[in-house]
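User: New here, please read:
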Amino acid sequence: MASYLAWLRIPFFASSGFAALASGLLYWKQNELIYPRNLPIGSRTEEGVPRPNRFGISDYEDLRLQTPDGETLSAFFIRPSNKRQARRLTILMFHGNAGNIGHRIPIAKVLEEHIGCNVFMLEYRGYGLSTGTPNEDGINIDSQTAIDYIRSQAETKDDRIIVYGESIGGACAIRLVANNQEAGDVAGLILINTMTSLRKLIPSAFPPAKYIAGLCHQYWNSELEIQRIKDIPMLFMSGLKDEIIPPSHMKELYSVCQVEKKVWRDFENGTHNETLAEPGFFDCIVEFVQDVLGGRKMELRL
């Protein structure tokens, strides 16, 4: 596992966009700043998107999904390698604001091996090999397209679904779960280093830009959206040395979340991009999934 976790330490330049928010380009160029989809260099090329077989995964599909507004989205559907321990479960993964789904395959490999689940990795519009240009409304269309696809396939239509989001992907995950909680197939939500909202992130992370935060038209207002979720178990995973999204954002999301079953796990040395490589990170996810699917009492800790 150690060799795969080394991939998780690749810097995804998530701070590169936000560091420029104090400039006069905020309003007109903010999508390019918030969604640095070309970083690392080559992330939008065939050669720059690693495939699952590079990591020893053979049972997968390289998909193209059509959105209602005409975009084509790249996605990986990875099946569990141990068929005898396979669960009727699909984890739907949403990544952060840079890189592509290929950079997150090591995460999917750990999940499918240790949980025995399918992993569906969606590439937002404008990222990797997906068409289009990313923005908040478009990415929300993309996430709904992904869950609709899972529900439409004979192989997965009866699966429970756990939605997993890191950084801005957590904001996407919150909105998706809020909009789909009545369907009955969403079993849980996992959030890693997610902000309360983009506008609140600007002054807390970059004080000189606080006076122009109101110019940000990408909201991702997770602190309001999460309160719409009423009965979906949630796991909050916070790196206490997150240098991009202050841990106070995750604590606030946990505080305003109204579900009965919510679990807090923090990692003393976890930074924004490397919390996933901290000891015990995946153990927490495995425990959460077992509790959710097994119906056992969940441990709450602050």
Remarks:
- The CA atoms of residues 160 and 185 lie 5 Å apart.
- Confidence is low (pLDDT under 50) at residues 10-21, 295-302.
- The radius of gyration is 18 Å.
- DSSP finds ten helices and eight strands in the chain.
